[in-house]
Structure formats: structure tokens, C-alpha cells
Amino acid sequence: MASSKRKMIEEFQAEAFRLETLDNYGVSRLEGHLRAFLNGEPRPEEFLNSPWVSTVRRAVRSGKRMYRVHILSRPLTDYLRYELGWGDRRNMAAGEEFFILDTTYQPNPLEGVGDFWMYDESTVEVMKYEDGGQYIGSETLPPERVPEFVEYRDIALSRAVPFGEWWERYRE
């Protein structure tokens, strides 16, 4: 994680929102876990107690809100099945809120909008990825762009459903 993003995750005051739009996040350090998931193996204990889970738990216990919307369509990629089945459910147990905006039978209302983090409706970091989903950095936008991303968040949330509801209906 880039140092400015890490700092914002640790220091936001009230809420951190994340929009996810990719079908694959190409995280090479997770390849063993992805393989284990696809082979039907149980989640390893260290996966359940990752540093991210600790960060989420600390933030939520201190009264902060962490939430995200993932825009996706079915059928899910192997990576998304893994992320939703192991990762998102683990993070929810730590207190992070997840929503799904399923575009399988509807147009994407945020077509062309990429991944971003927004902190306290005052700072936006646009995430940058290579074609294979490898994270290559982020860009903090000037304050005058924040209202545009507040609107993106609001559109995403207005059309998304809580993850648990979506998961019960569509899990593969």
C-alpha cells in the first residue's frame, strides 16, 4: 500500500469509502490463497488475521465507518469468487460494510469511473492499475474534484445491495 494511502487509512476521522470496479486485482502475494480457495481448501488462519483486518477492526471499534461498493457482473471471475467468498466476508466480520452493484442485467451507472478511496468526503485517491489488475499507485485529487466523487459514491450506493443479501442470492 502506498504510504499516503496507508496514512489516510490510519488517520481518517469519520468514514472511508472505496469503489471497486475490477474483476481481478492481480495481487501476486495472494496467489497461494487463490489456489487454495479454488481447490476447496479452508481459509488459512493467517488469512483471517491479516493486517488489513486489524486496521478495519481498530477503525470500526473507534466509531469510524469503512464501507465499499464493488461493481461487478456475473458470471464471476475466479478472482471475484475468491475475493467475495474469502476476503469480503472476512472483512465484514471485522466491521467493514460491503455492497454489490450488479450490472449483469442493467447498465453500469458509473461506466468509466475507476477505483478510488474517499476519506471523510474531503480527500479522494484515484487508484491506478495495470491491465492485469496489478496496483501501480494512486493519485490524490485536488479538493475541488471531491464533490464529483461524493456523487459517484451516492450513485453507487443508491443502486447497490448489501453484500449479504446479494451473496445469499447469487453465490456460486
In the CATH scheme, the class would be Alpha Beta
Number of distinct helices? 7
CATH superfamily: Endonuclease Chain A
- Percent helix: 40-55%
Please tell me the overall pLDDT. 89
- Computed over alpha carbons, the radius of gyration is 16 Å
Percent strand equals 15-25%
Describe this structure in words.
The protein has 172 residues and is of the alpha/beta class. The protein has a single domain (3-170), classed as 2-Layer Sandwich (Endonuclease, Chain A). It contains 7 helices and 7 strands. A 7-stranded mixed beta sheet has the order 6-5-4-1-2-3-7, with helices on both faces. A hairpin with a 3-residue loop joins strand 4 (116-119) and strand 5. The longest helix is centred in the middle third of the chain and has 16 residues, at 78-93. It is globular and about 45 Å long. The two termini are 30 Å apart. The mean pLDDT is 89.
Summarize the structure.
The chain is an alpha/beta fold.
Detail the topology: elements first, then pairings:
Elements: H1 3-11, E1 15-20, H2 31-38, H3 45-48, H4 51-61, E2 65-72, H5 78-93, E3 97-102, E4 116-119, E5 123-129, E6 135-140, H6 146-159, E7 161-162, H7 163-170
Parallel strand pairs: 1-2, 2-3
Antiparallel strand pairs: 1-4, 3-7, 4-5, 5-6
Name a few traits of the molecule.
172 residues, alpha/beta, Endonuclease, Chain A, 7 helices, 41% helix, globular
